[in-house]
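Morning run. Coffee first, then this:
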Amino acid sequence: MSKIAIDLQYLPNLEFFCAIWEAEELWLCAGDTYQRKSWFNRTQIRLSNKVEMLSVPIVGRRPRVSLGSIKVDYQQKWQKNHLRGIQSGYGKAPFFEYFFPEIEGVFQKQTSHLWELNLEFLTICLKLLQRPVKLRVVENSEIEGVDTDLRGLLKPGEPFLERSIYQAVPYQQLFGLDFEPNLSVLDLLFCEGPSAGSIIRKSIKKE
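And here it is:
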């Protein structure tokens, strides 16, 4: 059984799914330390005139805090902004009406901790991609039992071209003439629907 450890992301990008696509079990460690400027609380979507970074505000900025302890700051109206951005960017996409209700439902729950929010989004995205991967939350001490440890590898500040995980395979996006790679999986799901899984398979960089 293929077991891959990886950092949990907020509405993960395509490189994340290429990295875990062949896994039978995905190991996620809530005890890992939160890193600023990571994908844990941010993702990217495409709007009509730009790529937009969506960030989830968190409570406090203390160093050396575990991922599982990070709380979402609901004093800021970020859910409305994220939903407005997603609707603006993808409201006219071919498969928006099929997938959006499940995504919207998670935003409306006001989940207290970012870990649980990300885990629910990942579960839904895997279901929509029809990819039956078992999610397992583990302690740091258990990681030695994993087959591949990708934690700390996928970072916003380091281009995906420098890694041997994801290669851009263009699909039909809504805006612009140039293809924008490695956006949130929402971009692919809303634009391609049932074809999303096959596009991810083709996007896995071959050694």
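The mean pLDDT is 94. Good start to the day.
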